[in-house]
Amino acid sequence: MDQFFDTFLNWTYIWEVFPDLLRTGLLNTLILSVAAAIIGTLLGMVLAVMGLSTKRWLRWPARVYTDIFRGLPAILTILVIGQGVGLLARSVVGNNPYPLGIAALSLIAAAYIGEIFRAGIQSVDKGQLEASRALGMSYPKAMLLVVIPQGVRRVLPALVNQFIALVKDSTLVYFLGFLTSQRELFRIGQDLAANTGNLSPLVAAGAVYLVITVPLTHLVNYIDKRLQTGRKVTAESNEMLAGGTV
After folding, report:
1. What InterPro entries is this protein classified in (predicted)?
2. Which of 105, 186, 197, 199 could form an SS bridge with 171, CB 3.0 to 4.6 Å?
3. Which has the higher per-residue pLDDT, 89 or 105?
4. CA nearest 167: which of 186, 139, 193, 189?
5. What's the pTM?
């Protein structure tokens, strides 16, 4: 038992690594995740709209993109973009792999978020679009102001879950060889673990990840519960109206 605690819960190494985890690792993990989430959300919405289009020249590229980036392992995508595309983008980003890491995570996230948005939009009753069109709205305006907001609201839990997955996928960008100041949580914990031969720094990094992901998981459950309650109240109100009791 003493050996177990010394290997995984050696407080000397944990306290040694914590300042770097909080000052450098946490900051870079959040920058990578939030930046990729924002870009991925924007690209995902475009993919969702393209995927729902009646025009094949819009629908098929979105379908192919989604199949490719959802089908490839995340680490393969990150390496191809970071090392392959990086050679072509060197005139823009130089030798800095940080933007390429964000780009790779964004492209991966977009494929999943696009499918989430598409499912949410398709779940909205078609009568909403027809009613909006009957009121004189154009198709793009009806989608933007009526259908898409309802669809996004319905998939909020799935979007938060995708952000949690993005936080965990950010550990893979260390393969691109970030600078010391660019290391995320996992890389900092791994570096000290490798130098000391002790796994306590990785346990400390895992604890910081849990501080991020566990509250978000409970947020997902809270949002889902609120949405289910809202849908239940709406359904009951519609039944009362249909029965003439209101």
Report:
1. AA_ABC_transptr_permease_3TM (IPR010065), ArtM/GltK/GlnP/TcyL/YhdX-like (IPR043429), MetI-like (IPR000515), MetI-like_sf (IPR035906)
2. 186
3. 105
4. 186
5. 0.84
